[in-house]
Design brief:
The structure is a homodimer. Chain A is mainly β. Chain A has one helix at about 60-65, and strands at about 5-15, 40, 55-60, 70-75, 90-100, 100-105, 120-125, 125-130, 135-140. The first copy, chain A, is globular, with a radius of gyration of 16 Å.
């Protein structure tokens, strides 16, 4: 895999609540934009979406590949960078391939406002998940 | 990551169609069985479920971690082994970390019986997805 210095993270992002499946599914062996079904990750486009220290690659997604239930991203953060404080109405799973950092997670997803976040150390070869609507942020240290 | 000889594959498996979310979500910062939120992948249990040449680790899942929309698995297949020919009512995404093999995919998910499968070469650092209900099998060669 293409690796930059810093933290390399896989983020798994669910779209099922946003895009319900059609009741009739057409034949769909190939991607909707003529992309190959089997894709070399090193050749996929990357972007930082205006955020310094970020490299984002969509391994499989809605817009490019026609997926309706899930997206898989490969993201690299440079040391000292962080995700926004945010939440979303779907589950999210992280697999940390390299580096370390801190997860801040406020688990009061059933309240209107989040409570005080708890801190968790995240490290290479670790995995964790974010429950639906829980406010969270990941700060990358190495 | 723990690696065996052979092919190392990440499989992403969606549960959203099977287990709809409750309308009221309770606080859920931690796993349902007292497991830590951040888990060392090297310390997670593995099993082969009676299939020779397989090592399966659930990185995040329904039974162990209370997830309702998605599962993430880390699977290692020894050379010459293969998955069953199967299909399922959810999307699946593979990320191949090591090794190579052949994907057989019959894309006629809208028919009662699958058509003739097409062959795709899969290789280390590649990714591909299986559309809902498409019959498929992966044979691992190296």
């Amino acid at each position: 895999m293409r690796r930059m210095s810093g933290v390399l993270v896989l983020i798994f992002y669910i779209l099922s609540l946003l895009l319900p499946l059609p009741t009739t599914t057409a034949s769909s062996c190939c991607s909707i934009k003529g992309l190959p079904l089997v894709r070399n990750i090193s050749e996929l486009p990357q972007d930082n979406y205006g955020r310094g220290g970020l490299s984002h690659i969509t391994l499989a997604g809605s817009a490019m590949h026609g997926l309706k239930e899930v997206e898989v991203w490969l993201q690299t953060f440079s040391p000292g960078s962080r995700t926004p404080i945010h939440r979303h109405s779907c589950e999210e799973i992280f697999v940390v391939l390299k580096g370390s950092g801190t997860l801040y997670l406020a688990s009061s997803s059933h309240e209107k406002y989040p409570g005080k976040p708890q801190e968790y150390f995240v490290f290479a070869n670790s995995t964790f998940h974010i429950p639906v609507n829980d406010v969270h942020q990941v700060n990358l240290s190495t």
